[in-house]
């Protein structure tokens, strides 16, 4: 009897491949027909794409101009700076892999394998010299060294965060150079281009627009009339005009308002325009998350004596940002794709460099498909990476799953047991005790 009960409670075995195919693809006659049509269509499309990519397409413009696509017109004798920046990033990825793991481990391994494969590509030494191959091999080695460094006292989250910040500052200093230093001469930003400029525009815009957007969202909900009015005016004005207008204003009109003799770099003006534009949309995304937080949590924080600053910083804002992770990452992806508009203000990012390469040779003017497909593939890789990181973060934080369960239980309780004043006060008191315990555990001062 006990054996039979255990057999009944045992979960069913997973279906085999034939059973799975029959259940999901050939369950009915019309599902079978759709499956056959889809397989034939996919086969025809893939055969045509693979045939064109391997045998018919001409990739000469891309293979013959890799430096322009990567760094634009950056001086060849100063390319060691770009290589050093990449090695610093490799070390930080290895260190983050050891400390944080998870998604960072996936990206670290992927980049290390990618550069390792590049080092052994069957390309002649005239197109890929020995020095470049050694640099590609140095990337996975540096990642491994960073991973080993994570085993020491350096392997703590606060030191890793500080290291990423310092690496960003070091990257800007290395690329721009320092005046008066012979071994690190200044390189005008007009020579920056290609993937390097695209990545810097997107990175600066993402890093800078996030805190500005959070500040504007908080300012829009402020009780101070001046702060609220400024935030509302900024958000509505910036969101009411296209990015092209913002870039023109930052590039052409802003120098007219500066004192005589003061000149802001072209790349810096483009970064400023993209940052302000993205910050306005970021503010609305964050404001949506702030409005989704139940009022009871704020009341519970006040019940344990938390000030308005600590209530917002420790309770409301973390939950609001957790709720709007998908929209925030969507805004980051849109900003990365909007970097192609920098061509309008004279900056040669990846797409502009690709078009310039095609125009430099008469024989390449008809190879638009190959060049644009390559640029699209690069953008897709970066965008997919951000989307993948977002999904992993949402899964780790339980975005959507836990919230839906709470809403279902709240709806059931409201139908079966209508809320009264005493019950609400009891809930607030319970939440207050819970937050007090959490804060006391985190900080003995409380």
Question: What's the short version?
Answer:
The chain has helices at residues 2-9, 17-24, 29-56, 60-64, 66-71, 79-100, 103-119, 130-149, 157-176, 194-220, 225-239, 243-253, 266-291, 295-303, 308-323, 325-338, 350-359, 368-397, 401-416, 421-442.
Q: Terminal Cα separation, in Å?
A: 57 Å
Largest sheet: none
Residue fraction in strands: under 5%
Count of DSSP-assigned helices: 20
Rg for CA atoms: 28 Å
Secondary structure class reads mainly alpha
Question: What's the arrangement of secondary structure elements?
Answer:
Blueprint: H1 2-9, H2 17-24, H3 29-56, H4 60-64, H5 66-71, H6 79-100, H7 103-119, H8 130-149, H9 157-176, H10 194-220, H11 225-239, H12 243-253, H13 266-291, H14 295-303, H15 308-323, H16 325-338, H17 350-359, H18 368-397, H19 401-416, H20 421-442
Could you describe the 3D structure shown?
With 446 residues, this protein is mostly helical. Among the domains are: 18-56; 413-442. It has 20 helices and no strands. It has helices spanning 2-9, 17-24, 29-56, 60-64, 66-71, 79-100, 103-119, 130-149, 157-176, 194-220, 225-239, 243-253, 266-291, 295-303, 308-323, 325-338, 350-359, 368-397, 401-416, 421-442. Mean pLDDT is 83; it is low at 404-446.
């Amino acid at each position: 009897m006990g054996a039979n009960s255990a057999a009944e409670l045992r979960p069913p075995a997973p279906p085999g491949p034939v059973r799975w195919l029959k259940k999901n693809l050939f369950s009915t006659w019309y599902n079978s027909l759709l499956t056959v049509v889809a397989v034939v269509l996919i086969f025809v499309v893939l055969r045509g794409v693979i045939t064109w990519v391997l045998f018919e397409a001409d990739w000469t413009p891309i293979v013959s101009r890799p430096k322009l696509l990567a760094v634009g017109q950056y001086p060849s004798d100063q390319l060691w700076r770009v290589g050093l920046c990449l090695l610093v990033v490799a070390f930080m990825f290895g260190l983050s892999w050891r400390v944080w793991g998870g998604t960072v481990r996936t990206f670290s391994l992927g980049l290390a394998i990618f550069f390792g494969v590049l080092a052994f590509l069957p390309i002649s030494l005239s197109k890929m010299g020995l020095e470049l191959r050694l640099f590609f091999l140095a990337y996975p080695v540096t990642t491994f060294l960073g991973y080993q460094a994570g085993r020491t006292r350096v392997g703590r989250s606060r030191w890793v965060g500080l290291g990423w910040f310092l690496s960003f500052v070091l990257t800007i200093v290395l690329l721009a150079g320092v005046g008066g230093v012979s071994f690190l001469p200044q390189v005008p930003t007009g020579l920056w281009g290609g993937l390097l400029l695209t990545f810097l525009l997107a990175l600066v815009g993402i890093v800078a627009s996030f805190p500005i957007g959070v500040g504007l969202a908080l300012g829009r909900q402020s009780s101070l009339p001046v702060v609220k009015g400024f935030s509302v005016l900024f958000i509505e004005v910036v969101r009411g005009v296209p990015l092209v207008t913002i870039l023109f204003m930052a590039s052409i009109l802003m120098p007219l308002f500066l004192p005589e003799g003061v000149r802001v770099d072209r790349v810096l003006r483009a970064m400023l325009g993209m940052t302000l534009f993205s910050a306005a949309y970021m503010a609305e995304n964050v404001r949506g998350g702030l409005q989704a937080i139940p009022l009871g949590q704020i009341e519970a924080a006040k019940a344990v004596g938390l000030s308005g600053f600590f209530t917002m910083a420790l309770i409301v804002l973390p939950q609001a940002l957790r709720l709007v992770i998908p929209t925030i990452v969507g805004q980051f992806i849109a900003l990365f794709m909007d970097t192609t508009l920098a061509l309008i203000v004279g900056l040669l990012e990846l797409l502009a460099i690709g078009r310039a390469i095609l125009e430099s040779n008469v024989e390449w003017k008809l190879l638009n498909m190959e060049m644009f497909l390559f640029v699209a593939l690069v953008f897709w890789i970066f965008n997919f990476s951000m989307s993948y990181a977002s999904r992993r973060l949402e899964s780790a934080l339980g975005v959507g799953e836990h919230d839906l369960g709470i809403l279902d239980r709240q709806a059931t309780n409201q139908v079966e047991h209508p809320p009264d004043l005493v019950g609400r006060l009891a809930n607030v008191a319970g939440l207050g005790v819970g937050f007090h315990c959490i804060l006391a555990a985190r900080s003995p001062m409380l």
